[in-house]
Each structure stands twice: as C-alpha cells, then as structure tokens.
C-alpha cells in the first residue's frame, strides 16, 4: 500500500506541469501546442512562424505525424491546448491520434490549424470536411490565376497567387492594415453552405480557378472565382477556433521574406504580407484577441442592492454584467453598443439594449411585465470574430397578494363618478317629483 501511495503521488507531480499549462477561459495564455510534421525539415523551413509563436509565450512540441508515441490525452487529461497539422501528405497518424480523436479535441474547446497542399491525403481532406470545407476533389488540382498571379522569375507560373481579398474584420486580422498582397501556392477549397460557422478570410480573385496546371482544361473546373477560399476559419459553438488553408508554403520562411509584385501593378513590395497576416490570424485562433468573459452578473430592485429570491409583477428592477476582452496580456474592458438582455418566458417579454460606462460595466433597468411565472434573464451575444456569450438565470415572478392591491384604482374613478352621479340624479329626480305641484 505504501508503494502504491508513493506511485500515485509521483503521478500527480508528473501531471502537474501539463495541468498547470492547460487553457483556461480565465487566463488564455501559457498554452501548449502540438505541431505534427510530415518532415522534420519543416521545423527549420518554417522557423519564422514557429518563433513568432514562441515569442508570445507558446510552448511548441514538434513530432512527426506518424510517430507511434504521440497522444493527445494521458490519464483522461488533454496534454495540449492547440494542435497544428503541418502534415498534408500523412495517410495515417501515429499513436492514438485519428480523425475521431481530432474531432473530440475540438469538441473539448481546443484549437486547430490545418495546412494542406497539392499532396493532401484523404485523411486531411476528411478533417477538412468535418470542419466545414471541401478541398478540390482532383488530387492534382491547384489554384491558378492568369490575372492575379505574382510576378516571379519563373515565367508562366500562374500558380503563385498574390491575393489581397481579405475579410474586413479588425478583431480577426488586427487593426493595422495589411498593405502587401499575400502569397499563396496550393489547393483551393469551398465552404459547406450548410455550415454557417465557417468564414472565408482570404479569397481568390474572380479570375481564379482550380485545375491541374500541367494539363489543358477538358471540362469546366469545379471551383472558380471568388467561390474559392484560400484561407478559412471556424469558430465552433463551444468557442473552439480552427484555421484551414490549402497552402503549407504560405507559412514558410521563403514566402515570409519574398518580395511581391502583383501582375498588372507597378508597385513592388519588398516583403509579402504573409508574416503579418498569419501572425495576426494566429492571435485570433489562439484566443489572444476576440476572447470575452463575463463577471459580476447582478440583478436587484431599483433602490436596493441585494438580489431577491423572486420579483412581483410591475416591480422596477436593474440588471448589470461586466464584460472584458483578453488582449493577450490582460483583461481590458469590452466596449460595444449592441449587448442586449432578455427577460424571457417561452418568448422574450422584455428586450433591452444595455448601456455601458466604458469600463466594462453594462446595465439597464426595466419594469417586470404584468405576467407571473418563471422567467429568465438571458444574454445571448454573438458577434463576428468574438467568442459567444450565453448567460441565463431563472427568477420567479409572483402576482399581487390579496392585500397588496390598491384600495381605489385610479383607472376606475370615472366609474365611481358615474355611480355617484346616478345616485345624486335619482335623489334630485325623486325630490322634484314628490314635492312639485
């Protein structure tokens, strides 16, 4: 028994480093990231991107995708908070990782980056399908653009795309504008129309299409124009975030450092926009931006501070909540004019937009409706690029007691007046009728 006790204590101390670094909505930092590679050379050829993650406090662990020892869980606990798949050609993952394990990883609220290319395997394509995107079914297809290509030393190479068709969202791409076009060489994908959680971040131009660049077109291409997505993102309902792209090369040092000149344009940029684009979007994927939390949810009667166990119909009440956004280093007040609260029973009886003090505190006041039952305070906040907020709290609402009704109802004064005027009129009529000659 003594030996078993010592072994258990030792196991706990072994797991503490993993558990201590686990992602927490209260402090989304110091996160462990597993990077699966096709070839160990990718670690050096894409070192600028990896170093940018390390400089922001991420602990990267590199493994070959077919390593028989890799695992996402140990003793029922996840060892990592994010997974990066830089292994487009892998046919089968090693260890205990498979398609189901990756989906469970995302279902647990953790993040995922998928980078494919023209050698994408069926396994990577299946992962993409589960995330809401469909890569071109032709295994030899690449995105081609005879107008929006990047001018290069290789004449006629129109598979090197220079794209600047970006999503307009500061929370996803940062407030600083990306001036230079982004270099892309790889396969395109389309979005599943039935999945409203997936968004295009970088789109192809209207002149682009997906086909085999080494053969002539015999049939119309399946993907054309702006319907081709080069980079897409997903924010799941549990706030897990996914980045999907059809180009592993766009993360490479070569593309980061390359100058770029878009065909038909005179301006030549000394450096492509890849580094800025992928750095900023990785901040979003890893919850360094657009991550919200709520604290101090309160409600009480106007003029009071204590939260009651129930309300009475027609009571005046106040509701407040504090909302903060993670900046990568600290929690800052979140400022917006579209946060609403519902007073809900089967349907919202009250819907109020809350005002804020620019310090994170949102509040409003309203009258309890003249309906009794079990209500809910509900805040359902969803905004592009931000984690969704869902707050609810039940509260009963009772009717007036028998001794709480007004003795004389002001609305009934006309009826009181009519009754007394009738009585007075009858008295006058009777008096005149009896004593008149």
UniProtKB/TrEMBL annotation:
> Which superkingdom is the protein from?
Eukaryota
Where is the secretion signal located?
A: 1-22
Please list the residue ranges annotated as the OST48 N-terminal domain. Answer: 32-285
The segment(s) forming the OST48 middle domain are 299-437
In its keyword annotation, does this UniProt entry include Glycoprotein?
no
Q: Which UniProt keywords apply?
A: Endoplasmic reticulum, Membrane, Signal, Transmembrane, Transmembrane helix
Pfam family name, one: OST48_MD
Its localization reads: Endoplasmic reticulum membrane; Membrane
| Membrane-related topology note | Single-pass type I membrane protein
Q: Per its UniProt record, what InterPro entries does this chain match?
A: DDOST_48_kDa_subunit, OST48_MD, OST48_N
Does this UniProt record's set of keywords contain Endoplasmic reticulum?
yes
Annotated TM spans: 413-435
Pathway noted in the entry: Protein modification; protein glycosylation
Quaternary structure and partners = Component of the oligosaccharyltransferase (OST) complex.
User: What family, per the record?
Assistant: Belongs to the DDOST 48 kDa subunit family.
Chain's role: Subunit of the oligosaccharyl transferase (OST) complex that catalyzes the initial transfer of a defined glycan (Glc(3)Man(9)GlcNAc(2) in eukaryotes) from the lipid carrier dolichol-pyrophosphate to an asparagine residue within an Asn-X-Ser/Thr consensus motif in nascent polypeptide chains, the first step in protein N-glycosylation. N-glycosylation occurs cotranslationally and the complex associates with the Sec61 complex at the channel-forming translocon complex that mediates protein translocation across the endoplasmic reticulum (ER).
Recorded protein name is: Dolichyl-diphosphooligosaccharide--protein glycosyltransferase 48 kDa subunit
């Amino acid at each position: 028994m003594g030996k078993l006790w010592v072994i258990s204590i030792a196991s706990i101390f072994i797991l503490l480093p993993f558990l201590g670094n686990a992602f927490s909505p209260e402090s989304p930092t110091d996160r462990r990231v597993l990077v699966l590679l096709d070839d160990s050379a990718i670690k050096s050829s894409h070192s600028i991107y990896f170093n940018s993650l390390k400089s922001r406090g991420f602990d990267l662990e590199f493994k070959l995708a077919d390593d028989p020892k890799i695992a996402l869980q140990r003793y029922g606990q996840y060892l990592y908070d994010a997974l990066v798949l830089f292994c487009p050609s892998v046919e089968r993952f090693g260890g205990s990782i498979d398609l189901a394990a990756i989906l469970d990883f995302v279902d647990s609220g953790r993040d995922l980056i998928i980078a494919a290319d023209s050698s994408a395997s069926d396994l990577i394509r299946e992962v993409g399908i589960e995330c809401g995107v469909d890569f071109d079914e032709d295994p030899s297809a690449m995105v081609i653009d005879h107008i929006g290509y990047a001018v290069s030393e290789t004449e006629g190479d129109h598979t090197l795309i220079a794209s600047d068709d970006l999503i307009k969202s500061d929370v996803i791409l940062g407030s600083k504008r990306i001036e230079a076009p982004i270099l892309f060489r790889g396969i395109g994908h389309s979005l599943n129309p039935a999945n409203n959680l997936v968004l295009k971040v970088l789109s192809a131009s209207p002149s682009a299409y997906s086909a085999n660049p080494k053969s002539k077109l015999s049939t119309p291409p399946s993907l054309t124009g702006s319907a081709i997505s080069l980079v897409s993102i997903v924010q799941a309902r549990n706030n897990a975030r996914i980045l999907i792209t059809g180009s592993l090369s766009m993360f490479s040092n070569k593309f980061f450092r390359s100058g770029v000149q878009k065909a038909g344009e005179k301006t030549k940029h000394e450096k492509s926009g890849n580094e800025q684009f992928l750095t900023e979007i990785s901040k979003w994927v890893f919850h360094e931006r657009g991550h919200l939390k709520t604290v101090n949810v309160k409600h009480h009667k106007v003029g009071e501070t204590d939260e009651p166990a129930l309300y009475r119909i027609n009571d005046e009440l106040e509701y407040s909540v504090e909302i903060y956004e993670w900046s990568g280093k600290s929690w800052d007040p979140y400022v917006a004019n579209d946060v609403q609260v519902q007073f809900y029973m089967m349907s919202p009886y009250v819907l109020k937009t809350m005002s804020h003090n620019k310090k994170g505190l949102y509040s409003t006041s309203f009258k309890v409706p003249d309906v009794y039952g079990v209500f809910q305070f509900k805040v359902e906040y969803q905004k592009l690029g931000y984690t969704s907020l869902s707050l609810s709290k039940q509260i009963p609402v009772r009717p007036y007691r028998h001794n709480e009704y007004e003795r004389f109802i002001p609305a009934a004064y006309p009826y009181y007046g009519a009754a007394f005027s009738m009585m007075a009129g009858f008295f006058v009529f009777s008096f005149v009728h009896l004593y008149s000659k």
